What we know:
By secondary structure, the chain is α/β, with parallel strands linked by helices. The chain has two domains: 2-20 and 88-243, Rossmann fold, CATH 3.40.50; 21-86, DNA polymerase, domain 1. Helices cover 36% and strands 8% of the residues. It is built from eleven helices and six strands. It has helices spanning 21-34, 42-46, 53-61, 71-83, 95-104, 117-124, 128-131, 155-163, 179-185, 195-203, 214-217; strands spanning 9-12, 109-112, 139-140, 188-192, 207-210, 230-231. The protein has a six-stranded parallel sheet with strand order 3-2-1-4-5-6, with helices on both faces. Helix 10 links the parallel strand 4 (188-192) and strand 5 (207-210). Helix 3 crosses helix 4. The radius of gyration is 18 Å and the shape is globular. It starts with 8 loop residues before the first strand and ends in a 26-residue tail after the last strand. Pfam families: Hydrolase (PF00702). This is HAD-like domain-containing protein. InterPro entries: HAD-like_sf, HAD_sf, PGP-like_dom2. GO terms for molecular function: phosphatase activity.
Amino acid sequence: MASQKKIEYVIFDMDGLMIDSERVYTDVTNDILAQYGATMTWEIKAGLMGKPERAASAHLLSFFPNIPLTIDDYIAQRRVLQDARWPHVQLLPGVERLVAHLAAHDIPIAIATGSMRRNYELKTAHLQHVFARFGSGHVVCGDDGAAGRGKPFPDVFLAAARTLGRAVGPNEEVKVVTEAERDERARGLVFEDAILGVQSGKRAGMNVVWIPDENLLGVGPSQITERPDRVLHSLEDFVPEDWGLPPFDNTPKNRSE
């Protein structure tokens, strides 16, 4: 049970988990596809979430072989439209409170995102009251050398754990590392919204709380091969003491379970 866990460090995904960027990705993608009479469904989007930019673009375009766009053309159009929107993207519910709480109690925190570093900076520059708490040394982006293979491989979460000084071992799935490395990985808690991210966190041997978009619930469960430890509607529903973490100072009486 989750209540028996003793978490010592926490790793956040970013897109769709901390910030409302998945809405931007969807709108921009469909604006581009609309020029060709096409639309991205949630079944398609489920396979994109968490992937590095180029891999996600290639995966998307594979569903539309008759659209005369190269991967580079698509990425170029996408960046122009997205860059105009990133400075306005907003935090999702519960993020500010949880990050501030963990920082106040000296719980090590890091970010593991498939976003490129340039995009991470564009998305977070206006939200430094939250993101500055992580420090640049505890953010691993998809194009950082340390990130390794993209999700669903465990590499990026292991890289983020290493920035916190955790001895999690090499970029291998949990089943092939030493017992000490497995124990160290099991002390970590991952927050994710994407199916690929859930798979990545579980393959890393960490505990995973999945906070999916409600649209993803309609198509996602059949695609999950590694199950999350807990599913929540929002970070507002997270109960720290269930994971051996300090409780919120003002936990609402009627919290969601």
